[in-house]
């Protein structure tokens, strides 16, 4: 089966070119110069004239079905990967979880059981280590060598749930330094945060906005700095800071990078567009919709501006979503009268490609940087390149035909995520995902869905090819 995506502007991390993209089966086989007048007659043709052709988006941070905060993230691998596909994302990297006391491999097997046969697009796993001990350190080696899982998330937050102390973090980093894995860090000082949370509740400060106020930027910056120092002690273990939201944390990352360190970071659309005052501070219990950690930051400070700048300068390498949706009904409502009981998480897997394209429209990012931050760098960072993340011969035919002249209006009425609200209700984007192709198969076209559950494959990842 051959497919020709004809006459579009192919966008890659280093430039653009008008080209016909020839696909045979699941792979891209050639980029052809249309002015050369080739005579290929494919089985299927897609007219991409006037549109961008980009590699399918890679969301390197999702939590489908994550049990958390007394409930579970509302998107299953079925609903969440379908929504991702609608939004031009053709690969997710989800977080498998080892709970404290659990065998790491059992946690991984449980995630395979959730995802297997249910995904609409390709998927891979990072591993959350909920308990660092001799057994889990050994398991890290086994996951890297045999399971295609080459990155491990640790938490400096959530004492009693996922938290690791500095000694555990150091040991995991030393192991990763030996086996080549990436350590991913949730960098917030959870011990100090828990004190602030208890004090706020005791004062009767129970509204959702206090979720943000009790997780100050200084405690994200402190933890980020500490993680960077621990990684240095572990002989420059590769370190990736997840969901970075505060300017002060970004400064520490920038400093480490200026020193030539293997320190990387991602941010998420919610930190680029949403704020503590306007969303988390919405009247009544409304702000619960935007309770996530790290929290939204103040619009009276320069966080969002600095994050866009960080994306331009590559101090922020990637935009992921931290997709962790909860419905208001029965889920966010668990925290009525006590913000500390609101399940932490925002859903956005469907909108990342559009929301970051809006950064191109607004003059924040170049077209190339858009593609790099949503697809190419995630592939390189997490051992999927060049199979994913680039429109090039030999790569998987994961393609999005993006229409810069159409518009997208985000709403709960039209989104496909399993959420009873949208974190971006009413937001308009100049640009729209048109056709989505996953391994050579058209799964979205002209507003219709042609994919199916179970067609997505598990991807065994290699080591990062992004290290200095
Ligand atoms: N942050 C969230 O908002 N949700 C899931 C886990 C996390 O770290
Ligand atoms: Zn986290
Ligand atoms: Zn997360």
Automatic annotation (TrEMBL):
The modification N6-carboxylysine is found at residue 153. Its cofactor is Zn(2+). Residues 52-442 form the Amidohydrolase-related domain. The keyword Cell membrane does not apply. This is Dihydropyrimidinase. CDD domains: D-HYD. GO terms for molecular function: dihydropyrimidinase activity; metal ion binding. It holds the Pfam family Amidohydro_1. NCBIfam families: D-hydantoinase. Signal peptide: none annotated. It is an enzyme of class 3 (hydrolase). The gene is hydA. It comes from the Bacteria.
């Amino acid at each position: 089966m051959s497919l020709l995506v004809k006459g579009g502007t192919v966008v890659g991390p280093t430039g653009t070119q008008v080209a016909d993209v020839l696909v045979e089966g699941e792979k891209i086989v050639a980029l052809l110069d249309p002015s050369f007048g080739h005579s290929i007659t494919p089985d299927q043709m897609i007219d991409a004239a006037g549109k961008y052709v980009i590699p399918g988006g890679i969301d390197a941070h999702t939590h489908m079905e994550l049990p958390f905060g007394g409930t579970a993230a509302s998107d299953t691998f079925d609903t969440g990967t379908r929504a991702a596909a609608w939004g031009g994302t053709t690969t997710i990297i989800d977080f498998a979880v080892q709970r404290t006391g659990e065998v790491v491999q059992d946690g991984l097997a449980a995630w395979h059981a959730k995802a297997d046969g249910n995904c609409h697009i390709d998927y891979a796993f990072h591993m959350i280590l909920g308990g660092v001990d001799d057994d889990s350190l050994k398991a890290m080696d086994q996951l890297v060598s045999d399971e295609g899982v080459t990155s491990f998330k640790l938490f400096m937050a959530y004492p009693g749930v996922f938290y690791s102390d500095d000694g555990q973090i150091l040991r995991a980093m030393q192991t990763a330094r030996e086996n080549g894995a990436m350590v991913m860090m949730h960098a917030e000082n959870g011990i100090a945060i828990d004190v602030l949370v208890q004090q706020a509740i005791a004062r009767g400060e129970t509204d959702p906005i206090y979720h943000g106020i009790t997780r100050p930027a200084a405690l994200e910056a402190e933890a980020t700095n500490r993680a960077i120092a621990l990684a240095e002690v572990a002989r420059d273990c590769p370190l990736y800071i997840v969901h970075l939201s505060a300017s002060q944390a970004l400064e520490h990352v920038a400093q480490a990078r200026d020193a030539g360190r293997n320190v990387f970071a991602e941010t998420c659309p919610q930190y680029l567009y949403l704020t503590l005052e306007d969303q988390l501070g919405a009247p009544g219990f409304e702000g619960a919709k935007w309770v996530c950690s790290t929290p939204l930051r103040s619009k009276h400070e320069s966080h969002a501006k600095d994050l866009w700048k960080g994306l331009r300068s590559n101090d922020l390498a990637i935009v992921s979503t931290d997709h962790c949706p909860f419905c208001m009904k029965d889920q966010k409502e668990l925290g009525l009268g006590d913000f500390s009981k609101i399940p932490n998480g925002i859903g956005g897997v469907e909108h990342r490609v559009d929301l970051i394209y809006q950064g191109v429209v607004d003059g924040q990012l170049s077209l190339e940087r858009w593609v790099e931050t949503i697809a190419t760098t995630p592939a390189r960072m997490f051992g999927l390149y060049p199979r994913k993340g680039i429109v090039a011969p030999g790569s998987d035919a994961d393609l999005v035909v993006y229409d810069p002249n159409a518009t997208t209006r985000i709403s709960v009425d039209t989104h496909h995520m399993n959420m009873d609200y949208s974190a971006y209700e009413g937001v308009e984007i100049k640009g729209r995902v048109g056709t989505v192709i996953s391994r050579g198969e058209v799964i979205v076209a002209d507003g219709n869905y042609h994919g199916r559950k179970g067609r997505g494959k598990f991807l065994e990842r290699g080591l990062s090819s992004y290290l200095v």
